[in-house]
Structures are given as structure tokens and as C-alpha cells.
């Protein structure tokens, strides 16, 4: 029994020793214990920055953050970040330190953007901190803006679309119902019974067309007969033209005599009106032939 306790003690001690070695190795691997050049920078917001945060110089890892502490600067609270630069680099005085997030799931880090000045920041000096955009804050801001847009623009637009679409859908349903009724009427119109009726009508139409053709042929024959009759009438008129001309000449002579008698009658009436006594005292007319004989 005593020997079992000793074995348990040895095994437990070995496990604890290995755990300590593992934690020490991890501590050494992360470089937290390595000493390098110390620099400082200040930020008004250090969300996500803590001891052990990686420090990069133009994307190249050069150290880590060893301390984050609040300080009063320009009558407001800032945060002084102690940078442990394990790898020696020359930082120009116009360089800027900012908090960057390499990826959506990556932890934030302190990124140093190299300046163009020839003057170098001395060890223990201050690297100016620059305001940076936090990815998560940007996503949150974007979500907030999208929420505002949804409330102020998209929802009223959807409500307006719903108001306009509802009457259109009602009209569409009414149109579909009318189309269905019309389709039923068309089906009834072209039922088997009606189709037979249409076929009989078409057959009757064919018979009527044949009768019309026959009537047209008969009318053509009548027309030919009428044309022959007209030709015969013209021949009769031409043959009796001379007799008609003689009759017209006689009628003209008779009309001329009637016109001369009318003139004489008018002259006699005028003479009687001017001298009524001439009717009583008139002398018998002299025979022109007898006077010529004497």
C-alpha cells in the first residue's frame, strides 16, 4: 500500500513537471520573455489590444505589446502602449502606429507604417499613434446603417409595393376568371354538336356557292342575248334612217308654213287694232295675174 502511494506521487510529480516545462516552452516560443528595444505609442481606444499583442513593421512581426496603461493627455484619457521590439528596426520619426485587423477572424495587432524621414526614433521614444478603423466596429456600423436604411427606405418601399401589387393581383385574378369563363364558352361553342352544325352549314354554303356559279352562268347567257337584241335594234334603226329623215323634212316645212301663217295673222291683228274701219272699207284684193294681163 505504501509503495502504491509512492508510485502515485512520482507519477503526479512527473506530470506536473512536464506541464511546467510545456508552459515555459510556450512562454519562450511566444517571445514574451525576450527583451528588446522599448518604444511607446498612444491610442484613444485600445479595443482588442492587450499584453502579448503582436507588433508588426510594414507587416513584418518585430515584437509584442508588454504593457497597456491609461494616461491623461490633452485633458482626456489616452492609453500608452509599451512596444517590445525584439527585432531591431529603424523607425523614421514620421512613422505612424495604428491598430489593424488582418482578417475578419484574426485578432487585432499594432501595425507600424514606415515614414519617409531620414531621422530615426530613438530607443525609448514615442511613435505617434494614428486613428484606425476597427473591422468589427466597421461591421457594427455597417449593420446599424443597414438597419436604418431598412427602417427608413426598404420597409416603406415594400409597403408601397404591397399597396400597388395588391390591386394588380386582384385585377389579375379577375382577368384569369374572365379568361376561364371565356375558355368555357369557347369549349361550349366548339362542342361536338356545334361542330356537326358547323359542318352542315359549310356543306350548305358549298351548295349555295354552286348555285351562285350556275346563276352567274345564266346571267352571262342573258347578257349575251341582250347584246344580240341591241345589235338587231341598231340595224333596224339604221335601215329606216332615210324614211325618218324625209318625215323630218316634211315636218320642218309644215312648221315653216305654220310660222308664216302666224306672222300674217299677227299683221292682220295689228292692222285691225290700228284701223278697225279697214275691216269694212277694205277693197277686194287685186288679182295680180289679171293686172299683169292688161
TrEMBL record:
Superkingdom of the organism of origin: Bacteria
Positions in coiled-coil regions: none
Mce/MlaD domain: residues covered: 38-115
Ranges that cross the membrane: 6-27
UniProt entry keywords in alphabetical sequence: Membrane, Transmembrane, Transmembrane helix
Pfam families given in the database record: MlaD
UniProt protein name: MCE family protein
Organism of derivation: Candidatus Propionivibrio dominans
